[in-house]
């Protein structure tokens, strides 16, 4: 049962312009309610303290922070979580401040923490400690890309990264296509930006002509691009401009 | 290829308080950028014209609409799409205004259009007509629930509704549990609010004690609740308060 005075764990989304040369206004992608809540927090768990501070600085320009940047308690998730994932990691010690009564914000580099990013072990630990978990609204690249794909959004899966090794990658693409066609379940996945064009070539050469293939990149940013077509149409239209921007790919029928 | 003067299709998210007695401020769940874009649109495709007007009225209080409510062109998606789904529906005629150069907004009753809701046929038609698709940021109950579940958010599926018939439902729950345990892929689904408690009983009696089960309901609203525990822990804690509020359920390991 929750201790009477424990703080809450806020899941604070970040904008999707991480690492981009041109940043979009925070108010394009984050509700005032999210920014105001973030501004009053003083304890943070994050992937990277430097980018957390940069984000807080941007928030401060719109909603003055409750504590000066240098007074914010910012703790990075251990390397272990980045490398091995959240499964099996006991994050309860990271929530000591919440047990003591402080609200804590969980941040990822871009988008929603614990979605296509580390953090679920922290949320799991919060539930086990009886700490209330409050997700705040913000951009989620996967869902923006799915909505804009034209593919079935009433049954879908996100499977992370595909194998890099060419043969394994082709097998995985065929497996995902079979699932998409058989179940009508759209299959979403991501790729490291500099490999976007290679991923694209693997997809259009491996998938059947009538299979639908969609890509969304730079969503919420000035360079936003979302497009979904049958593979046969893509072959006529050519490779979309997705290089160097995080992209979400989707296969469907 | 896009016609030079065609309008764009904006995917406009709606707040999650549809049908709720108490509404939360729009600014809690929608970025100023989304509201400002919606305010300048004058052509709409929606599930229900009455609720689209009610939403526009709320937007108007914060960002004055470019055209008075009575001058807005609001077109409902045909019954066919609600009943049979988007597959096979040709929505190109609904985009005539965009072909003529007007930007169009696509709206669902709550959350993101085309995600766990109709609308993907409209997006598909836009891509086929070369109309740019612009997804705007807003609340997506599935993703808020997943982030707050403590379950794996790096591999997950959303499968819509489960069967209502008791035997079929139990079989489907077992099938989803097997997928979740075998693949480590969190399985998300939804239920009609008045059946939430019955769904809950089916889940705790059917799932294995060590399986993780999470529920999120009323997220972004004052009655927000998100909790994820092993089934054995849920049995001690009892049924969560999720009745009468749209809820998202998730099974994972």
What does this structure look like?
The structure is a homodimer of 253-residue chains. Chain A has 2 domains: 9-135, Cobalt-precorrin-4 Transmethylase, domain 1, CATH 3.40.1010; 141-252, Tetrapyrrole methylase, C-terminal domain (Methyltransferase, Cobalt-precorrin-4 Transmethylase, Domain 2), CATH 3.30.950.10. In chain A, strand 8 (212-217) and strand 9 form a beta hairpin. Chain A is an alpha/beta fold and 253 residues long. Chain A has 10 helices and 10 strands. In chain A, the strands form 2 sheets. In chain A, strands 3-2-4-1-5 form a 5-stranded parallel sheet, with helices on both faces. The termini of chain A are far apart. Chains A and B meet through helix 1, helix 2, helix 6, strand 5 and helix 7 of A and helix 1, helix 2, helix 6, strand 5 and helix 7 of B.
Give the second-level CATH assignment, the architecture of the largest domain in chain A: 3-Layer(aba) Sandwich
Radius of gyration of chain A, CA atoms, in whole angstroms? 20 Å
* Order of strands in the sheet with most strands of chain A: 3-2-4-1-5
Most extensive contact: A-B, 66 and 66 residues
Q: Could you say what the CATH topology of the largest domain in chain A is called? A: Cobalt-precorrin-4 Transmethylase, domain 1
Q: What proportion strand of chain A?
A: 15-25%
So what's the overall shape of chain A? globular
Biggest beta-sheet profile of chain A? 5 strands, parallel
Please indicate the count of domains of chain A: 2
Corresponding CATH superfamily of the largest domain in chain A: Tetrapyrrole methylase, N-terminal domain
CATH class of the largest domain in chain A: Alpha Beta
Give the helix proportion of chain A (percent range).
25-40%
